[in-house]
């Protein structure tokens, strides 16, 4: 387990004095990472209140009721009733939410990361109090902000709100975020070592190329504890993966914000490296501005593609048109991991040592009279059965095409009865699951590879032409061709006979944003490859094989690309741009030198062209008609 860095700050008046004397963080530098750091208190008379915020006007300046929305999203729907019945007890939890950004002119979102502390004390009014410390950011850097909250949260409770400005000063001193790369970010006496997820506009690896290292994030929320969140529903992971791929609406119900937000993050991470374009809310409350719109859907109206994590059972009635409901987690907050109903699965080893996870414990289709009756009862009652008792289950009208991979499940390790090693076992299991679903998604996307394949100039051909267009994509032709070829070796072992239905993905909300992004990336890569070929080409050797007319055409083409390079890189002055322009200028002069004299005179009549050709000296042509030297 990573050691949490310490941040030294004295409490009380000394803390306030230290914060006041410290230079304020650079607002622009801070905004690269976070919008605001907040302390939110639950007031018995007035409800949720923003007690402190840094920068002070960060929430109010955004308008649109952002302060109220963040406040309501930073607390559980009700004080936990499962805390130990001692005279005084403290319960800390971490969770996240995602809300619309009212300050953005387009549809953008803010991510909230919450450290919530509930304290029960019989001496306090109503027997307890609760307060939350929140980091609000435009970036979904969960692996970073969860670590930072484990510092900032306890620090705020120790020294007060002055900790917000102090930690903000550390964050403002960090270098700019480097999406998709590992970073070491100093904080207090140590550093946070994180690997940021790729940027939203990063298309990721080509669909036919499986990333070699599954521990590197190829999508959002790579740090989500997938195994713990869905341990009681492991056989349903493949159906859930399909629901996410095709963009089906999903309602995730859990006893606590920590469990539902972890489950939603895990679902989004399942489809990496696919760009997930559906709206998702790790923790959704009735105070969200979108609730009124969803609640007003008429009976029979199609529910929009969304993934909503909720703890309030009121949503089971108000959003009853949602076709897929998954219940996760355990009402017992004393467990650090989400366990199946009925307790933790026993280990295969002795004395609590880890062993293989027994598939018979997961076999939802294993026949017995009791299991059959329970299954029928669960299906008949539907999600509303959660109103009386929380149980892990999936209710869905979707017909899956993928079969659970028992070879993957057989590799999972059970921690036995020892919570001491449970976290390390979860890390191993998450690695196994992520590797499999990364491979599954990559193979599912592989048939689109030919439409994203780049080309380079063939040997001996001129690179001074526009590269060919990528193959045109037509959905009907793609599906017909795929039906004729089959799903491929990897998928054929894991798919049912209706496997082609999964490619309804083409009609869903995830396909077009992903395909356009991949297509744009392929076109950009092709332009880069052809530009590099122009820089590397031996112009004299190339033109020695050309006729006079072809040499004139080549001169015009080289000039065109030189002017384009100069225009695109105007004012940048980087070494690569300077070298490219220099090489193209040399090539232009070499091409000019082998042209007929009358053509040279005609070309030099253009003043701008004459500047480009300035310094060309007449040389006697060699045996092959090529000038071997030019003077610049």
SSE blueprint and pairings:
Elements: H1 12-21, H2 27-31, E1 36-43, E2 47-54, H3 58-62, H4 66-73, E3 88-100, E4 109-121, E5 128-137, H5 142-159, H6 162-172, E6 182-187, E7 190-195, H7 226-229, H8 237-246, E8 250-253, H9 257-270, E9 279-281, H10 291-295, E10 306-310, H11 315-318, E11 324-327, E12 355-356, H12 369-381, E13 393-396, H13 406-409, E14 413-414, H14 422-445, H15 475-485, H16 489-492, H17 511-536, H18 539-543, H19 548-568, H20 575-593, H21 597-604, H22 607-612
Parallel strand pairs: 8-10, 8-11, 9-10
Antiparallel strand pairs: 1-2, 1-5, 3-4, 4-5, 6-7, 11-13, 12-14
Helix pairs in contact: 5-6, 19-20
What would your notes on this structure say?
- With 632 residues, the protein is of the alpha+beta class.
- Helix content is 37%, strand content 14%.
- It has helices spanning 12-21, 27-31, 58-62, 66-73, 142-159, 162-172, 226-229, 237-246, 257-270, 291-295, 315-318, 369-381, 406-409, 422-445, 475-485, 489-492, 511-536, 539-543, 548-568, 575-593, 597-604, 607-612; strands spanning 36-43, 47-54, 88-100, 109-121, 128-137, 182-187, 190-195, 250-253, 279-281, 306-310, 324-327, 355-356, 393-396, 413-414.
- It has a five-stranded antiparallel beta sheet, with helices on both faces. Strands 9-10-8-11-13 form a five-stranded mixed beta sheet, with helices on one face.
- A hairpin with a 6-residue loop joins strand 4 and strand 5.
- Helix 5 packs antiparallel against helix 6 and helix 19 (548-568) packs antiparallel against helix 20 (575-593).
- Mean pLDDT is 82; it is low at 1-16, 79-84, 333-352 and 617-632.
